[in-house]
Each structure stands twice: as C-alpha cells, then as structure tokens.
Amino acid sequence: MQKDIIIAPSLLAADFKKLDEEVTKLQQNGIEYLHFDVMDGHFVPNLSFGVPVLESLKPSYNFVYDVHLMVTNPEFIAFKFIKAGADIITFHYEAMKSDEEVLALIHKLKAENVKVGLSIKPTTKVEVLLPFLLELDLVLIMSVEPGFGGQKFMDSALTKIKYLANLKKDKNYKYLIEVDGGINGETGRLCTAAGVDILVAGSYLFGKDDLKERIKGLKNG
After folding, report:
1. CB 71 within 8 A of CB 100
2. 157 and which of 15, 55, 110, 143 could share a cystine (Cβ 3.0–4.6 Å)?
3. Active site residues
C-alpha cells in the first residue's frame, strides 16, 4: 500500500503582498503542513521572516506549523516560535558545538510539547544523526545549500534518505524523513521512491495556476 506523502509548502516562496490569498489557496487544496524557513543572515547568507508572520497566521489557519531554524543560535529563537504557535521545531546539527548540546536542546524543546527535528546540510554526513534518532520526531535532509530558494536539487540527498528509511525500518524508529530544496515533480518522485515522508516545495507550488495538479503529482509520487 502506498503511503501518504505530506506536502509542506515553503512560505519563503510566497508572494507576501497577497499572503492571505496564497495561504487560503493551499488550505483549499488540502495542504495540512506549512513550512517556515527562518534565516538569520549569519548561519546562512540570507534573512527571512520571523515570529510575527507565524503569529499572524496561527489564529486564522489550521496548519501544522513546521519551523526550520537556519540560525546560529537556535535555542534563542526556538522558544519564541513555540510561544507563537509552532508545532514542529527543526534546528541544524551544524549550529551546535557538541552532541551533548544537541541532545540538551532536543530535551528542552520536547519539554515544551512540540515535535523536534534535526537538519543537516548537503556536505554533512548522515551518520552524525545516529546518536539522536531515537529522540527525534523528524529528520530534515537539505537537498540544496540552505539560504536561498530555487536552487538545483543535489542527488546526494537520495542516498541519505534511503539510509534513514532503511534504519527506521530496521530499528523501528518513529521519525519522519523530510527533504527540502529543489523539489519538483521529478525530484519529488525520486525522494518518494527513496523513502521520504515529507516534501518541502516552494517555487514549484506558489504562484502556479495548476497548483491542484502539482500537489496531486507530489502526493502520488
């Protein structure tokens, strides 16, 4: 039986001049997850939106708010997003000084009753995640260098997804596997075949007249 693939549109690609219209359209097309790419201009060479955007959407739209922190100090900002209504907080392995720090932050976030994810950049080996997999609700594989939308998908992500999918099955782990970067109809199919659970897509979805067909295509792999 084919599993249901979760589609998490990345708000980074939305037209903020008509944000309500864009987000309403997603909801009307059965989207349940909304992905927030939060950048500080330091950990990655770009700046994006902050807490007020989530605060403004939360009362009106019933999404799973999936917040991806691409920031140097995730602990500082994470709790502000939780207060604003985040459901999932994902931070970067590379932003932390040690495995002990990673574990400590996972536990602090879990104490706030949110789901916790850990992300790695394309050049980081997937094995660094091994000490944390039992604790995690989500693993986010970056298939582009984080920082800017519209980049080309890196095939190395597929090997990481397969590795995590096999490990999940063998060890009966519970984490969801998410992929972000360069996702379109073709790369989405490749990721689904590799064992992904959540596809993050930005420019492939926002501002497109055939949004319904594109979502359906991603969901059906």
Report:
1. no
2. 143
3. 37, 180
Give the 3-state secondary structure of residue 149: coil
Distance CA 123, CA 164 (A): 16
**CA 1 to CA 24: how far, in whole Å?**
31
Range of the domain at 158: 6-220
The pTM of this model reads 0.95
Distance CA 220, CA 8 (A): 14
- Give the Cα separation of 188 and 207 in Å (integer): 19
Number of domains the chain contains: 1
Per-residue model confidence as pLDDT tens digits over 155-197: 999 999 999 999 999 999 999 999 999 999 999 999 999 999 9
The torsion of the CA quartet 33, 36, 37, 41, rounded to 10 degrees, works out to: -170
- Tokens representing residue 164 in the block: 């995590």
Here the CATH number for the domain that contains residue 157 is 3.20.20.70
